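Work Package 4 report. The design task specified in the project plan requires that, given a folded chain encoded as structure tokens, an amino acid be chosen for each position. We show below one input record used in the internal validation round.
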């Protein structure tokens, strides 16, 4: 399955849709009872539940499943329940292997289905289709490798409606902007992240070229031209993100909130931390590393391929570690490749995402009043509060360096001393892939 193309319905995060299509078009209900599928419109409908296994009680013959909507449900089993293991990317049960309940474990993805009208709280499900946690992680890593190898990411610099082309710009650690032109055709899958959320690759909504705006963060997957200046996109993923920064004035660890004085507006801003939020700290001695490209990402370093080691604690599904500093998954989206973030880069020198992805994760308890932070968020309805996708503290040396580069280039001094979106927007805890 390595040669399956990402963006064509084979991505792991589309598992729910894939299996539901299987239910409709392959007659799983009839197959579960050993019957021949029927195309009759009078055939009873099938009700399905797709989600992640949270717990298994073999004695009570029950599986607790967290649906993609977040709802916790209990699946009842019987001695007649069939168990099938399907490899990620497969589109038919003909290649599914027969397994038993003992082969199902926490973290697996499952589909359970019933005939419409059955009491789902008491009726046993006749069939459970399983994709194992290990198989999903392997497929996910294969997909992330595709994004690193065949993807580009950055800030939308221009949109040309007449040619249906998007120009994406990314700033390297050495300060030089790099641009790629991305033609969008009717064969390109275009999706965007909804506002005021932690971006999850599986939850990006179908969109269109006309909704892409200058300043959006965007990631694209496809075939690059020989000079790297163009990319024929199979998939485009984008969102309207905001990069904010400021000095921490209060920390409410119990409610996972911090307050800052916004660096640019000078107004109070509340930062909300979710379990998926990623917190990192910029090392005190990191500024000395920039002379050589920074964090091993300069010319000749890992920046060329963007496939350097992931940070400790980075989960298989997404940006860096857990929001509370543990070894959880990054937000799917909090960058492709992680956030789905260590994705393929657009040129030499390494960009800011490469640096930030390699910083150590911390917890809210390691933040201090007086720390200077920058963070990324999807814009929401309330401008006085933002939900953090990725947050970095101890950022003073980096802000000073960016401001000095702007001054040296003769550019105007932005409010707050540095253009946060321009300097950090390209994949800083933003747009993500698998």
């Amino acid at each position: 399955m390595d040669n399956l193309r990402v963006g064509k319905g084979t991505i792991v995060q589309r598992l729910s849709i894939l299996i539901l299509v299987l239910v409709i078009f392959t007659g799983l209900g009839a197959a579960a009872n050993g019957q021949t599928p029927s195309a009759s419109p009078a055939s009873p409908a099938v009700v399905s539940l797709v989600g992640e296994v949270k717990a298994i009680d073999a004695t009570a013959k029950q599986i607790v499943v967290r649906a993609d909507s977040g709802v916790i449900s209990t699946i009842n089993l019987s001695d007649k329940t069939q168990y099938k293991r399907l490899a990620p990317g497969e589109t038919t049960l003909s290649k599914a292997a027969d397994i038993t309940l003992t082969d199902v474990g926490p973290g697996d993805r499952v589909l359970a289905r019933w005939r419409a009208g059955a009491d789902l709280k008491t009726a046993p499900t006749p069939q459970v289709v399983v994709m194992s946690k290990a198989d999903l992680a392997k497929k996910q890593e294969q997909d992330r490798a595709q994004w690193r190898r065949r993807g580009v990411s950055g800030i939308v610099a221009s949109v040309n409606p007449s040619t249906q082309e998007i120009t994406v710009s990314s700033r390297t650690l050495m300060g030089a902007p790099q641009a790629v032109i991305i033609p969008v055709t009717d064969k390109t899958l275009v999706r965007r992240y909804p506002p005021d959320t932690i971006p999850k690759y599986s939850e990006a909504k179908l969109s269109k070229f006309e909704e892409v705006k200058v300043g959006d963060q965007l990631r694209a997957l496809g075939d690059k031209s020989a000079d790297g200046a163009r990319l024929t996109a199979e998939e485009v993923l984008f969102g309207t993100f905001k990069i904010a920064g400021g000095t921490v004035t209060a920390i409410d660890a119990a409610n996972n909130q911090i307050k800052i004085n916004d660096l640019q507006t000078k107004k109070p801003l509340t930062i909300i931390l979710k379990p998926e939020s990623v917190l990192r700290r910029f090392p005190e001695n990191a500024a000395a590393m920039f002379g050589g490209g920074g964090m091993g990402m300069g010319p000749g370093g890992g920046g060329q391929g963007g496939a350097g080691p992931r940070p400790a604690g980075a989960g298989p599904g997404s940006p860096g570690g857990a929001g509370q500093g543990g070894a959880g998954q990054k937000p799917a989206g909090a960058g492709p490749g992680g956030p789905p973030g260590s994705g393929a880069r657009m040129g030499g020198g390494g960009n800011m995402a490469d640096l930030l992805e390699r910083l150590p994760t911390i917890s809210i308890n390691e933040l201090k009043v007086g720390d200077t932070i920058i963070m990324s968020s999807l814009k929401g309805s309330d401008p006085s509060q933002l939900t953090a996708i990725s947050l970095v503290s101890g950022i003073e040396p980096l802000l000073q360096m960016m401001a000095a580069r702007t001054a040296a280039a003769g550019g105007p001094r932005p409010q707050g001393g540095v253009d946060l979106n321009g300097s950090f927007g390209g994949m800083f805890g933003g747009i993500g892939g698998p």
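The radius of gyration is 23 Å. Validation will be extended to a larger panel in the next phase.
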